[in-house]
Specification:
The strands form 4 sheets. Strands 5-4-6-7-11-12-3-13 form an 8-stranded mixed β-sheet. The chain has helices at residues 5-14, 23-27, 56-59, 67-75, 98-103, 109-119, 147-152, 182-193, 197-200, 217-225, 262-265, 269-272, 275-279, 298-301, 315-326, 337-342, 345-364, 381-397, 400-405, 411-434, and strands spanning 34-38, 41-45, 89-95, 125-131, 139-144, 176-179, 202-208, 234-241, 247-252, 257-261, 290-294, 308-312, 330-334, 374-376, 442-444. Helices cover 40% and strands 18% of the residues. The chain folds into 4 domains: 5-59, no CATH class; 67-212 and 276-342, Aspartate Aminotransferase, domain 2 (3-Layer(aba) Sandwich); 217-266, no CATH class; 353-444, no CATH class. The protein binds flavin-adenine dinucleotide (FAD). The site of flavin-adenine dinucleotide has 33 residues, from helix 6, strand 4 and strand 11.
């Protein structure tokens, strides 16, 4: 190991693979390192006097997380199904409290479970991500010790948030639940395996399915193309306001209200998608005790209101969910894994094969890419061609010229236009993207201990 920890972390940032999770800052016992806000999300500033342990090299998601090894340590086995990971039960459903359900991203299940854990004394506090802190257009990790604070954190935050720099603020004598994105959950499990006291104080890891996040610069572009002046400050921002699937809602000091349905503001993705979204091979939050996504299916979408796919990864969580069902807090229906997976086939493929191809291409061009210790056993040439098209769109979308072109098209045109093109592309690429997915197998590339 030739580089120092600081050199190693600086290289991860310079190499463009830092996910901004905050783990390195959260592991710095000296507390001199910190996360700095940048247009590409939070990035670590590592102090020369830091006290970050060497083990950061084993849990930095921008560098390497050995998923097969972690599977053996955490679950005692590798999954049979590498698309969705190890599962105890799969449900579709929602929280029965109408206010929570309505204010949430999909069915309000994450908020309801966190509130229940706190009220029943299972945890002392929940570590959540809240939009609007410290400023309306920003989001931060918060230690919530009341159900009101947990409810204030409802809804997904689609820009990167450094969640794990909270670690050195946790009290190892207390018990926490946390919401994490997939690589953050995995990194946390590595720390727990290593016996890190603060990581072990986290008794429950909950998290969303995670497809794509966008850089914070997207928010500003969205305002400008909608005619909001720079001096007209944002007073409120919600990513999933209103009836499910909801809309992006931005209110400014002058009283201007911008609303864009979720399916329309997706047009920002090709221009601002984060590198972390493109490199992660984990969609279904494989190391969270409870993973929740939107229940995208005609049956649920036609009803509105909010429905989630709810995945429990162990017996303890399944027992808790059953208890919540019995108490009438959650309404859950068992869902066959096949139909639950079909709701997310495109995104599962985007991560499980797409990220592998994209990471490989990065390495071919001499760039850094993270290593997750496994690769798909086979990827057909057609699938590679599809990925070339997708990657070309992402590369072009991030050029200044294309981003400037956004300003020429009003959002009311580009939103529906993008959605139509997206649906057409989904239809055209569907066969190739789903082909072979049901028999997805992997080759473990990490050396076994
Ligand atoms: C970046 C991102 C991408 C996503 N992509 C998909 C997708 O492609 N397909 C899909 O089906 N679902 C996706 N989701 C999940 C979906 O948006 C909902 O979060 C999920 O359905 C849970 O809904 P809920 O109503 O139970 O959550 P809620 O009850 O609304 O609670 C949300 C909880 O998530 C936590 N949270 C929000 N944002 C973050 C964040 N950035 N980091 C850590 N914790 C956070 C909050 O602390 C809160 O407790 C994504 C979520 C995120 C954050």
């Amino acid at each position: 190991m030739s580089s120092t920890v600081k050199e190693f972390l600086d290289q991860v940032v310079a190499g463009g693979t830092c996910t901004g999770c905050g783990l390195c800052a959260g592991l710095d016992a000296s507390q001199k390192s910190y996360m700095r806000a940048t247009p590409k999300g939070p990035r670590p500033v590592i102090s020369v006097d830091h006290e970050i342990p060497e083990m950061i090299r084993q849990c930095c998601a921008g560098h390497r997380i050995d998923y097969p090894g972690l599977y053996r340590q955490h679950y005692g086995q590798v999954p049979e199904n590498w698309l969705t990971g190890i599962i105890s039960e799969v449900y579709t459903g929602y929280c029965t409290d109408e206010t929570i359900r309505r204010n949430s991203s999909s069915g309000g299940v994450l908020t309801a479970v966190l509130c229940y854990l706190l009220e029943s004394g299972e945890i002392d506090a929940a570590v959540v991500v809240t939009q609007g802190i410290p400023e309306p257009e920003k989001a931060s990790v918060v230690i919530a010790s009341s159900t009101a604070e947990i409810q204030a954190a409802s809804q997904s935050v689609y820009v990167p948030v450094s969640t794990l720099d909270i670690l050195n603020r946790l009290d190892p004598q207390k018990r926490y639940a946390i919401t994490c994105l997939p690589e953050q959950s995995a990194a946390l499990r590595v720390l727990q395996q290593q016996g890190h006291a603060n990581a072990l104080s986290i008794k429950y890891v909950l998290g969303p399915y995670t497809g794509t996040a966008i850089y914070p610069a997207a928010i500003e572009t969205f305002q400008r193309i909608n005619g909001v002046k720079k001096q007209d400050a944002v007073t409120s921002l919600k990513w999933r306001a209103g009836e499910w699937p909801g809309y992006l809602e931005i209110i400014t000091r002058s009283g201007k209200v911008l609303r864009s349905p979720k399916v329309y503001y997706n047009f920002l993705i090709p221009f601002f998608v984060t590198n972390a979204s493109l490199q992660s091979m984990d969609f279904a939050n494989e190391f969270a005790d409870l993973a929740v996504g939107d229940a995208w299916s005609p049956e649920f979408e036609s009803q509105g209101q909010g429905f989630s796919v709810v995945v429990s990864r162990n017996e303890k969580m399944t027992t808790l969910l059953k208890e919540l069902q019995q108490k009438g807090v959650l309404s859950l229906r068992k869902e066959p894994l096949e139909s639950a997976s079909a709701m997310h086939g495109h995104m599962i493929d985007f991560k499980k094969r797409g990220s592998y191809i994209r990471n490989r291409m990065r390495r071919m061009f001499g760039r850094k890419a993270p290593d997750f210790g496994y690769k798909p056993a086979s990827v057909g040439i057609k699938r590679i061609m599809v990925e070339l098209v997708i990657s070309a769109i992402f590369v072009l979308g991030k050029t200044r010229l294309l981003r400037l072109m956004l300003y020429l098209l009003p959002e009311r045109i580009i939103g529906p236009l993008f959605n139509t093109l997206r649906l057409k592309w989904k239809k055209v690429s569907r066969k190739t993207k789903r082909q072979g997915l049901e028999s997805y197998a992997v080759v473990i590339t990490e050396k076994q201990p």
